[in-house]
Input
Amino acid sequence: MQQVHAKKFLGQHFLTDLNVARRIAETITSGRTIEIGPGMGVLTQFLLQNPNINLTAIEIDRESVAYLKEWYPELHLIEGDFLKLDLSTIVPEGEFNVIGNYPYNISSQIFFKVLDYKDRIPVCSGMIQKEVAERLASKPGKKAYGILSVLLQAYYDIEYLFTVDEYVFNPPPKVKSAVIRMTRNRRRRLDCDEALFKTVVKTAFNQRRKQMRNSLRSLIEVQSNNVQCTKDERLEYFLTRRPEQLSVDEFIELTKLIQTIAN
Output
């Protein structure tokens, strides 16, 4: 029988509570689905039991791959690094969901990759570090509200579903975990330059305690050559705010105003 040993460099913490695993699996109800890092298949077994799910699993750990092939021979399994794979070669056309008990050390990178395929991923769910889950679902004005909150909420409705204690893992992590579900919203495209939007959000939150007049100064000067020349009252209003005070729609509006300066 193959054995799998948790590897720290892969951020592995194997979930042992079957009830929690079942609840996570139930966040996806149907459709083509990619599971990231199935490990020893604690989620996989429940996903495979759902006849409405067409499952593909991606696993980087060779021990886990051997274990999964032995215990779940029916599973469509790809050995590789999710972050480096071209998902369009795995699912050439149509929509697909993403699910997993995500490694804490790369969860943010996973969500940024999901954004790259946002028009094809209607639902992304799974378990992550509680602190990161709170960031994803946070509303403006909260301490947790930040870059991930704005960039993901621009395209997804995010639900914080439930908290998971440390003792249901082997080995137990030093922090609590949480399960989230992201559902694609109706916003197909932003009403602004999407690349500039991302730059504005990241630049603003890099100095989150400062008014955006200071954090965005260099960016606006690039657009206008003279930040003091702007007389737009709405832009002036935004520049006196701190980034955590702005909603997604207001960041979109701010980006449009900065675009206007460039024109």
Observations:
- The chain has a mean pLDDT of 90.
- The CA atoms of residues 102 and 180 lie 11 Å apart.
- The domain at 8-184 is CATH 3.40.50.150 (Rossmann fold).
